[in-house]
């Protein structure tokens, strides 16, 4: 074939390598099938065997035969980013996954996109693409976008590539809509043994890794958000535990743990708690069960005996029983071919189950911890981890059910189901590292973990909220609690007053107090750290109150994103200025009582992180410059009225905070007040490239707060003369 040597020359120029012998053999088969008039071809090759190069070869071949444009579909945005730089070295290639359709409209010979984005832009694409190449095509089995997109595009040819051989029957059924456009599927399968025969230099890995997302549906997302954002009233540690339980183990295990938490009094009776009770009364399969059904649609042991037994691991018994019920009901697998291996079985029952599995009578074993060690489970053809154990020992014990030293080389599949935009994906990097050291090819795991973590959930939510508000920022309280208090100061002081421990401790330190005195002392303790030093119990109580106001894992995600320069914040000048005003008024009252003409406060600290969140406005880092410019305009106007405010700015490395102290005085009604408020800004990254810009915003924000306090004071008490 003249085309392959020509393609090798292009590869040599672009990448400094050429096709391996086995890749040339696969390329010849593919070109022959196209020459015979096949219009719907899927090539299955092991991961690490260079599918991407063969995808490029297919595109180049079609373009050389007069095809106008090629659409390459990747399952994720990250893969679009990964593949685009490689493709464009060989052929003029556009990338489109943001939904603005620009790359589609430009005359690129090849465009890389996700099926979701292509479907959004499909009205502009009809008749545009002669051929479609689908990377990781096995995901089309459970992905509706592919089957909706291809009939709209009506290409001449569709070529799919996958590292995994799904059930041919299930695959053909799933792509029936594509088949109506381009004809019957032709499946070209090359396993490790075949490629090794073609090319003795090809070394297969011990196993392949595949990842299936356990997507939450709308009702599950609402429940998860109650836990993640800390909106469910209850103990903070319990909420964190319930969040992890729900994302990792699904509905049944979560509802079991939720019921226990309510019985123990760790969850407060509330409207949200009632909503969860209603959710738990339903019998719909959970996100983890749905993902497992997707896995078993692809790797179906009923249709492929080589995969038996499929072993499914979960850490919770409730989840194991839920899985069996979902498989029997959803996939119509006979009840006796699916068994659950838990501590509920006696030793004799376990032996009997495993004997049946070795005989081939049991096709699926769903196991909890009892199957991870000390039980002679037959070697699996497919192993599914529906949760990733954090313990390396447990991970290896599970993996040993798939990979054994004595086993002959065959295509083994290791599947992990993970819940996107939850903490569960945070454990994946450790799991991948363990797999690598065990000799498993992990190159297939090409995904952007950042897009799968809870931080992405938070970023998406901030974008949606600010867009809805038509604003550059949103308040922390609105984002986390779904609402924001009208008066954060009163909100916080009310929380302190509602704490019996705080009230009791305050009386122990300062004696019996009237209501007005209690409120005044509460304010002083919040803003004057020297008063907190009187009692460790007082500090501990305040910390517990602030934890109640700042529940959920979202708190840590905010901190992380701020440190990583993906979010930043400023304090609401309108609301925090009320606290500065309270101090001005307290000093004025003190001066009047003492018949003094002046007063001074050198100790007004806004340093409590949990308290300051009540006043925090959060924004995406790309808005930093714009917000600075808006603040500058306000500050210029106030400087003309009140004069400048002197600032002293320092970086506290220990607390990772920028500390700004403002100096100004205010004179009204013959009383001069000197005040020196100090503001702490936490999670400051000293090595940030945006360091100077962030400090600029912080200093503008402090001035804005102080100027607003002065304005309010003027409105109440008359003319102010301010000097630094």
From TrEMBL:
<dbReference type="GO" id="GO:0005829">
    <property type="term" value="C:cytosol"/>
</dbReference>
<protein>
    <submittedName>
        <fullName>DNA repair protein Rad25</fullName>
    </submittedName>
</protein>
<dbReference type="InterPro" id="IPR001650">
    <property type="entry name" value="Helicase_C-like"/>
</dbReference>
<dbReference type="GO" id="GO:0016787">
    <property type="term" value="F:hydrolase activity"/>
</dbReference>
<dbReference type="InterPro" id="IPR027417">
    <property type="entry name" value="P-loop_NTPase"/>
</dbReference>
<dbReference type="Pfam" id="PF04851">
    <property type="entry name" value="ResIII"/>
</dbReference>
<dbReference type="GO" id="GO:0005524">
    <property type="term" value="F:ATP binding"/>
</dbReference>
<dbReference type="InterPro" id="IPR006935">
    <property type="entry name" value="Helicase/UvrB_N"/>
</dbReference>
<dbReference type="GO" id="GO:0120545">
    <property type="term" value="F:nucleic acid conformation isomerase activity"/>
</dbReference>
<dbReference type="GO" id="GO:0003677">
    <property type="term" value="F:DNA binding"/>
</dbReference>
<dbReference type="InterPro" id="IPR050742">
    <property type="entry name" value="Helicase_Restrict-Modif_Enz"/>
</dbReference>
<dbReference type="Pfam" id="PF00271">
    <property type="entry name" value="Helicase_C"/>
</dbReference>
<dbReference type="GO" id="GO:0140097">
    <property type="term" value="F:catalytic activity, acting on DNA"/>
</dbReference>
<feature type="domain" description="Helicase C-terminal">
    <location>
        <begin position="291"/>
        <end position="459"/>
    </location>
</feature>
<feature type="domain" description="Helicase ATP-binding">
    <location>
        <begin position="32"/>
        <end position="183"/>
    </location>
</feature>
<dbReference type="InterPro" id="IPR014001">
    <property type="entry name" value="Helicase_ATP-bd"/>
</dbReference>
């Amino acid at each position: 074939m003249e085309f392959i040597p020509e393609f090798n020359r292009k590869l040599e120029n672009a990448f400094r390598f050429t096709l391996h012998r086995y890749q040339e053999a696969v390329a010849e088969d593919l070109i022959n099938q196209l020459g015979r008039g096949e219009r719907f071809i899927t090539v299955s090759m092991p991961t690490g065997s260079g599918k991407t190069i063969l995808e490029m070869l297919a595109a180049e071949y079609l373009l050389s035969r007069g095809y106008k444009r090629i659409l390459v579909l990747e399952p994720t945005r990250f893969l679009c980013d990964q593949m685009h730089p490689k493709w464009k070295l060989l052929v003029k290639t556009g990338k489109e996954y943001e939904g603005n359709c620009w790359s589609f409209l430009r005359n690129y010979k090849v465009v890389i996109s996700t099926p979701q984005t292509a479907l959004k832009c499909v009205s502009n694409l009809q008749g545009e693409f002669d051929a479609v190449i689908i990377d990781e095509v096995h995901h089309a089995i459970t992905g509706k976008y592919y089957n909706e997109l291809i009939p709209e595009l009506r290409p001449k040819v569709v070529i799919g590539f996958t590292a995994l051989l799904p059930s041919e029957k299930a695959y053909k059924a799933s792509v029936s809509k594509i088949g109506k456009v381009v004809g019957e599927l032709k499946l070209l399968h090359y396993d490790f043994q075949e490629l090794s025969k073609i090319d003795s230099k090809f070394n297969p890995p011990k196993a392949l890794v595949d990842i299936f997302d356990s997507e939450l549906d709308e009702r599950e997302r609402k429940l998860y958000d109650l836990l993640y954002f800390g909106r469910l009233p209850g103990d903070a540690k319990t909420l964190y535990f319930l969040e992890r339980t729900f994302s990792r183990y699904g509905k049944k295990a979560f509802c079991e743990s939720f019921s226990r938490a309510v019985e123990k009094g760790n969850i407060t009776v509330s409207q949200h708690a009632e909503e969860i009770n209603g959710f738990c009364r339903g019998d719909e399969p959970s996100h983890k069960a749905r993902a497992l059904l997707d896995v078993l649609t692809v790797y179906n042991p009923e249709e492929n005996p080589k995969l038996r037994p499929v072993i499914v691991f979960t850490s919770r018994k409730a989840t194991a029983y839920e899985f069996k019920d979902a498989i029997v009901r959803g996939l119509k697998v006979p009840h006796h071919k699916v068994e659950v291996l838990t501590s509920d079985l006696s030793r004799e029952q376990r032996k009997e189950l495993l004997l049946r599995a070795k005989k081939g009578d049991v096709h699926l074993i769903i196991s909890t911890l009892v199957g991870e060690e000390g039980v002679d489970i037959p070697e699996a053809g497919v192993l599914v981890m529906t949760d990733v154990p954090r313990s390396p020992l447990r991970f290896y014990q599970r993996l040993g059910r798939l990979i054994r030293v004595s086993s002959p080389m065959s295509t083994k599949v290791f599947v992990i189901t993970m819940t996107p935009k939850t903490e569960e994906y945070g454990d994946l990097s450790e799991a991948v590292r363990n797999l690598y050291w065990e000799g498993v090819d992990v190159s297939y795991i090409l995904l952007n973990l950042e897009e799968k973590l809870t931080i992405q959930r938070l970023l998406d939510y901030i974008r949606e909220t600010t867009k809805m508000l038509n604003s550059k920022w949103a308040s922390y309280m609105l984002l986390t609690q779904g609402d924001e208090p009208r008066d954060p100061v009163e909100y916080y002081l009310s929380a302190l007053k509602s704490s019996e421990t705080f009230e009791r401790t305050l009386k122990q330190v300062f004696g019996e107090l009237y209501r007005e005195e209690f409120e005044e002392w509460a304010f002083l303790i919040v803003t004057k750290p020297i008063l907190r030093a009187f009692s460790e119990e007082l500090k501990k109580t305040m910390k517990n109150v602030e934890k109640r106001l700042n529940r959920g894992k979202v708190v840590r995600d905010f901190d992380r994103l701020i440190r990583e320069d993906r979010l930043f914040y400023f304090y609401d000048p309108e609301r925090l200025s009320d606290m500065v005003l309270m101090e001005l008024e307290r000093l004025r009252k003190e001066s009047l009582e003492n018949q003094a003409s002046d007063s001074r406060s050198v100790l007004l600290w806004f340093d409590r992180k949990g308290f300051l969140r009540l006043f925090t406005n959060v924004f995406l880092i790309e808005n930093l410059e714009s917000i600075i410019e808006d603040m500058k305009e306000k500050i210029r106007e106030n400087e003309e009225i009140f004069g400048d405010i002197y600032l002293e700015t320092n970086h506290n490395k220990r607390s990772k905070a920028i500390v700004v102290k403002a100096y100004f005085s205010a004179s009204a009604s013959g009383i001069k007040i000197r005040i020196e408020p100090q503001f702490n800004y936490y999670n400051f990254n000293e090595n940030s490239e945006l360091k100077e810009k962030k400090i600029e915003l912080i200093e503008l924000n402090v001035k804005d707060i102080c100027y607003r306090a002065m304005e309010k004071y003027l409105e109440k008490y008359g003319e102010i003369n301010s000097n630094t």
